[in-house]
Amino acid sequence: MKVPAARSLAAPRHQPGRSRRVTSWQSASMLILAGLLFGALLSACSSSSKPQVSRKPGTSKAPATAPAPKKKPSSTSKEPAGAPTPPGQSTTPSSVLSRCRSANLALTMGSQSAAAGSASAVFVLTNEGSSSCSLYGYPGMQMLDASGQPIPTIVVRGGGDAATRAKPSSVVLQPQAQASFVAYWGEVPVGAETSCPASAKLEVTAPDDYHYLVIAATLAPCSSGTINVSPVQSGVLRAGV
């Protein structure tokens, strides 16, 4: 009796081909997965390689075209030139007084003295203004004849007997206060002089003023009308040396 040939238990012929196709698909999948992983790694590396700029909370970078901030005005600003002085304020220190003006002064003659060919007279200035003022220095003088015309007059400040008086100093005159000066002159003709013209009036100009006061006074100074004057002093002086 023939024994039938045993069939091979090996896989059919087409199995190897199927397994090859499965293996190729798996290989392709692995390559794709590896590519994705490699791309992800590259992306992570590139993002981590960029420097990070840290900023404080609440701050932001200003735009390049941002305008410069405006300067605030100074707390100590100057007044514009020519601005009026506010009421109640003065532009001059209270310790500085204005000089006495002839318009606010009254002129009178005080004591007189004559001896040994010389004479002297005191002239008194009274502040008739409503505020205090000051005087400093020597007065000016000009002799006038009866018709009011000037006659030769030479005024020497601090000369002759006037040199014995005090030196110039500031004199403050309160309202109705008085100051005075002394005038000295010789009454003896000098050189070719035969007589000494006498005045009928006298112009007196206060120190640092341009306006004069007129007073009736008879003076006959010789030596071309030379008069030596003392500086203005406080109070009423006496004639003589």
What amount of the residues lies in strands?
25-35%
**Which oligomerization state do the chains in this entry correspond to?**
single chain
Overall shape: it is rod-shaped
User: What's the mean pLDDT score?
Assistant: 76
Per CATH, the architecture of the domain at 102-234 is Sandwich
CATH class call of the domain at 102-234: Mainly Beta
Brief description of this entry?
Helix content is 17%, strand content 25%.
Key features of this structure:
241 residues, 6-stranded mixed sheet, rod-shaped, 3-stranded antiparallel sheet, alpha+beta
Structure description:
This protein is of the alpha+beta class and 241 residues long. The chain has a domain at 102-234: Sandwich (Immunoglobulin-like), CATH 2.60.40. The protein contains 2 helices and 11 strands. It has helices at residues 14-49, 222-225, and strands at residues 105-115, 118-127, 133-135, 140-144, 154-157, 171-173, 178-186, 201-205, 212-216, 226-229, 233-234. Strands 1, 2, 5, 7, 10 and 11 form a 6-stranded mixed β-sheet that branches. The protein has a 3-stranded antiparallel β-sheet with strand order 4-8-9, with no helix packed on it. Strand 1 and strand 2 form a beta hairpin. The longest helix has 36 residues, at 14-49. The chain is rod-shaped, with a radius of gyration of 59 Å. The N and C termini lie far apart (194 Å).
